[in-house]
Specification:
The complex is a heterotrimer of chains A (319), B (331) and C (284).
Chain A (H helix, E strand, L loop, with lengths): L2 H25 L8 H6 L6 H11 L5 H13 L13 H37 L1 H14 L4 H15 L11 H36 L2 H8 L4 H19 L1 H19 L4 H10 L3 H29 L13
Helix pairs in contact in A: 1-13, 5-6, 5-8, 5-11, 6-8, 7-8, 7-11, 8-10, 8-11, 9-10, 10-13, 11-12, 11-13, 12-13
Chain B lengths: L9 E9 L8 E8 L4 E5 L6 H7 L9 E8 L2 E2 L5 H9 L2 E4 L3 H4 L6 H11 L5 H14 L16 H13 L5 E5 L7 H18 L2 E6 L2 H7 L2 E6 L2 E7 H6 L4 H8 L39 H5 L5 E3 L2 E6 L4 H4 L7
Helix pairs in contact in B: 4-5, 4-6, 5-6, 6-7
Chain C lengths: L19 H23 L31 H37 L1 H16 L2 H12 L4 H27 L2 H8 L4 H37 L11 H13 L4 H32 L1
Helix pairs in contact in C: 1-2, 1-9, 2-3, 2-5, 2-7, 3-5, 4-5, 4-7, 5-7, 7-8, 7-9, 8-9
């Protein structure tokens, strides 16, 4: 199978899964007890006008599938409907809040990749005390929920020591980076531990292979052996965790944004869930699922480029 | 180099290697020389220490190994070198052809990369020169330069072993170590690879240390043969002498257990018993428990290598060598 | 598809047989479980007894771990909180294990359309992280412990069913199964009496590992105020309640439940990983 055909097939598969996911997200509303209109109003003033507005906005008199495809058509054009709590277009809420979340996630991702790969590499290459230290540290890192990390960091570095602001996301890039430092660390902690472990075991496996001994026997300097044969060969395994890393970041950002009072889409999801603002919940859920699937797609497409043994369409040979 | 007393290409003297957690050395006083342009075979069962002996010429030792003795390549002790010099030797004067080409070549890098990496990364050669040399050597092993752009997974095992051989020649080595280079290949490739190694050895004038468990193969290609058992060289001598008139019962038993086309059909004489366990110390001759000629002295005192009468090149470490003389196959 | 446990990689060193860390973790697991079981007998105070005059007081002889912003005794809330904090993950693990084994066995045994429906829906569930699915369901059904437990169980189910499926496929290929079939045993009989006992250790080790994940996810939901109801003592909820106090420089009532959670999760992880490892070694 050529790469192009493989790519086209993967994109089509992703589109199909995304379509099903959107159906689940849309249909969830109809699982609620009571009529959709009363669910959407969720105890708010049920004046006849409001009821009529809801009915008109959601075309609740139309058959279910018609409503679904109308909603989906809107979503594809960037129209996620109107937020019930904020009385504004959901797409505007998203446009306001997505940048902060993306910045936070990017910062956390940078930390995860830099520190995780570094620790994994140290543990695998140095061994001994360095390895034990990394193992113990990462045992605690993968056992710490991100909100617990957030609360602990906040209590120590923001409140007690006053080195960082304890909440908010700041104005302007520099201020934002400063405000988002603690949240990014809290978000990155668990995944850094995970990535360090994945890297460590992938590198140990690579270090064990005969071709590494062969490279050494041919006088290739040790630094180059590590770079060209050990790191290079663990890349595939590390890459396959990409989807998991990004989905975990997207989910944990809900907790971290709430802990630090950052106005991103994570906090938006938390607020709209508490206030039963279902159109907003739908939109944020769908965006999280879509981002996660997009990353998985990128990983799938990159994998054959990183590992020539991967026969297109299977992940098995990645090692 | 002194013309009257040429320095051997490889000169191993009294090599003794002890690994952690074992009761006796894995290698115990190994002496072995390979002269310039000579082919020497090192024969033994798996676990006898033959691979470790050949790898010691590159100082490729298992972690935690305690080493005594000397391993000189062109007069220089490999065991005493600093890391930079060692890299130089590994990339230049000594090269190894490994058993399984599929495992020896990184499957994720192009074959061209594999060929050139040792000489370019040690700074010995420029990239362009290295590529030109790689193309030339690929020609010498019967492959064309299109292989350079391929990944190891895209060529056959036999072709890949040719690549490994070409790679070994990249640094103009004076010594080539071949560690069972044919066991992982199918029968037709085996013969091709052997023929190729012999041709290349002649053409480039390198010394060749050929590690194998196959006696016939050893006899066919080598000038001299060393037979190893349980970490010791038990017999050494010119190939024809050694096979015609073995002076160690182990060699004789090995010869008897090899299937032959000519000669009488019948049951093969398998060697009874197991090689000694590394976890138990050895007091006498390592082969004593399996040896039909063993007497009390064999259990008490390890025999020292002694030359055959009138043939100083042919030496065996056996208390009863003289009993074997002239009776090759019926030991 | 090979039988590979989804687990935190690279714990080999820590799981070394009889290592002090493992014994420590085993002791911790036992302590937490005992605390949860006997909490009502152990607690010195009513966990919801409010004493505003004493709010945010530090540790004292009367309140060894201090009190929270509403003047409630932290030690009592921590001990009772162990119950909900462990019961939720237990529900998730039990449900996802039972359903996962059923679905995985059916898919492996029947094959055909059952199998392809399963693998399609597995892919779909993988696209929804467990927490997101839980939030989606909470947004429909409202807060409480049941909805998130079911949502997480559904999210964890594919991990168990995928593992079960590959294990059953491997087991089914073994000769004893056809021997029983020839003797006229029914498929259900063979599955229940012979195949399940053989694959159980591997699946249960996976479930122990899932326990830690479920604990973190459920605590996260309680931290968002979406999990357990407001007055229930629960570690996640305690962190949620203690947040404002942190901002005012009284971190104890929020930090203690965090520490309890981390220790519990680490203990369950280490114990589960070691079990998984031993099972894997036995199978080899």
């Amino acid at each position: 199978m050529s790469f192009v055909r493989f790519a086209v097939r993967r994109v089509a598969e992703m589109a199909a899964t995304l379509l099903t996911a959107s159906f689940v997200v849309f249909g969830a509303m109809y699982l609620a007890p009571g009529s959709p209109a009363s669910f959407l109003l969720a105890g708010r003033s049920a004046s006849p006008e409001a009821l009529a507005a809801i009915n008109a906005q959601y075309h609740l008199d139309d058959p279910f599938l018609v409503r679904y495809f109308r909603w989906l058509g809107g979503v594809l054009q960037g129209d996620f409907g109107r937020s019930i709590t904020y009385r504004t277009d959901v797409s505007r809420l998203l446009a306001d809040r997505l940048p902060v979340t993306l910045l936070l996630i990017t910062m956390a991702l940078a930390l995860v990749v830099a520190v995780g790969l570094f620790l994994g590499r140290i543990a695998a290459v140095r061994g001994g005390a360095a390895d034990s230290a990394v193992l113990v540290t990462t045992t605690f890192a993968v056992g710490t929920p991100s909100f617990a990390a957030a609360v602990l960091l906040q209590g120590l570095f923001a409140v007690r020591l006053g080195w960082f602001p304890s909440s908010g996301s700041g104005e302007g890039l520099g201020d934002m980076l400063w405000h988002l430092t603690l949240p990014a660390i809290a978000l990155a902690l668990y995944l850094t531990g995970m990535l360090a472990r994945v890297t460590r075991s992938a590198m140990l496996e690579a270090l064990d292979s005969e071709h590494v001994t062969v490279a050494r026997s041919r006088g290739v300097p040790e630094r180059q052996v590590i770079r060209r044969h050990v790191l290079r060969n663990s890349l595939g395994t590390v890459l396959t965790t990409g989807g998991l890393i990004v989905s975990t970041l997207l989910v944990c950002t809900i907790l971290v944004e709430t802990a630090f009072g950052i106005g991103g889409i994570g906090q938006l999801l938390e607020l709209s869930t508490t206030t039963k603002d279902f159109p907003t919940v739908q939109a944020v859920s769908l965006i999280i699922v879509a981002l996660f699937m997009a990353v998985n797609l990128v990983v799938d497409l990159l994998l054959p480029l990183v590992d020539p043994r991967v026969t297109l369409g299977s992940r098995k040979a990645a090692a | 180099m002194n013309p009257t007393q040429p320095v051997p290409t490889l000169d191993i003297q009294g090599l003794k290697i002890t690994l952690p957690g074992t009761a006796r050395p894995v290698l115990d006083g190994v002496d072995l020389t390979v002269r310039a342009g000579e082919t020497v075979a090192l024969v033994g069962e798996s676990g006898s220490g033959k691979s470790l002996t050949s790898r010691s010429a590159l100082r490729l030792l298992p972690p935690g190994a305690v080493v005594e003795g000397a391993v000189r390549v062109g007069g220089e002790d490999v065991l005493a070198m600093d890391a930079d010099r060692l890299c130089g030797v590994r990339a230049g004067s000594v090269a190894m052809v490994f058993q399984d080409p599929r495992a020896a070549v990184n499957p994720l890098r192009r074959i061209g990369d594999f060929l050139t990496e040792s000489v370019t990364l040690t700074g010995a050669t420029s990239r362009t020169d290295a590529t030109a040399r790689a193309v030339e050597l690929l020609g010498a092993v019967g492959l064309d330069e299109s292989v350079l752009r391929k990944y190891p997974g895209q060529v056959s095992g036999g072709m890949l072993q040719r690549v490994v051989i070409a790679a070994a020649l990249m640094g103009d080595p004076v010594l080539l170590l071949a560690d069972e280079p044919t066991t992982a290949l199918d029968v037709t490739s085996q013969a091709e690879v052997i023929a190729l190694l012999a041709t290349l050895r002649e053409r480039f004038g390198t010394g060749l240390l050929f590690v194998t468990h196959d006696l016939d193969l050893a006899a066919a290609i080598s000038d001299r043969v060393h037979v190893m058992y349980a970490g010791r060289i038990v017999e050494t001598g010119p190939a024809e002498d050694l096979f015609a008139r073995p002076r160690h019962p182990y060699t004789a038993a090995l010869l008897a257990s090899t299937p032959r086309m000519e000669g009488p059909r019948g049951r093969l004489a398998a060697i009874e018993g197991q090689p000694p366990d590394l976890r138990e110390p050895l007091h006498g001759c390592a082969f004593a428990t399996r040896c039909p000629l063993a007497t009390e002295v064999c259990d008490q005192r390890a025999p020292l290598p002694a030359a055959a009468p009138g043939r100083p090149e042919h030496r065996a470490a056996c208390h009863h060598s003289d009993l074997l003389e002239g009776s090759a196959v019926d030991a | 598809m090979t039988a590979v446990l989804t687990r935190r990689p690279g714990l080999a060193r820590i799981r070394a047989t009889g290592s002090p860390l493992h014994l420590l973790c085993l002791g911790l697991v036992a302590a937490v479980v005992l605390a949860a079981l006997f909490a009502p007998l152990l607690v010195p105070y009513d966990p919801n007894a409010v004493d505003l005059g004493n709010a945010l007081a530090g540790p004292s002889a009367a309140h060894p771990l201090g009190v929270d912003a509403a003047g409630r005794d932290t030690l009592s809330r921590l001990l009772l909180g162990a119950r909900t904090s462990l019961l939720g993950p237990l529900g998730v693990v039990v449900f996802s294990t039972v359903a996962g084994i059923a679905v995985g066995t059916a898919a492996a045994w029947r094959g055909g359309w059952v199998d392809s429906v399963l693998s399609r829906s597995t892919e779909l569930v993988f696209a929804f992280p467990g927490m997101l699915l839980a939030i989606l369901i909470i947004s429909v059904y409202g807060e409480g412990l049941l909805a998130p437990v079911i949502a997480l169980a559904v999210a964890y189910l594919p991990y168990v069913s995928r593992l079960t499926r590959s294990l059953v496929l491997a087991e089914r290929a073994r000769p004893y199964v056809s021997a029983y079939q020839v003797q006229g045993h029914s498929a259900v009989q063979i599955c229940l009496r012979h195949i399940l006992p053989n694959i159980a250790p591997v699946v249960l080790a996976q479930s122990t590992i899932n326990f830690g994940y479920a604990l973190m996810d459920l605590a996260g939901l309680s931290f968002l105020g979406l999990g357990v109801p407001a007055l229930t003592p629960d570690w996640g909820r305690m962190v949620f309640d203690g947040q404002t106090a942190i901002q005012h420089g009284y971190p104890l009532s929020a930090i203690l439940p965090c520490a309890f959670m981390v220790l519990t999760v680490v203990a369950f992880n280490v114990v589960g990983e070691r079990w998984a490892d031993r099972v894997a070694r036995r199978d080899r």
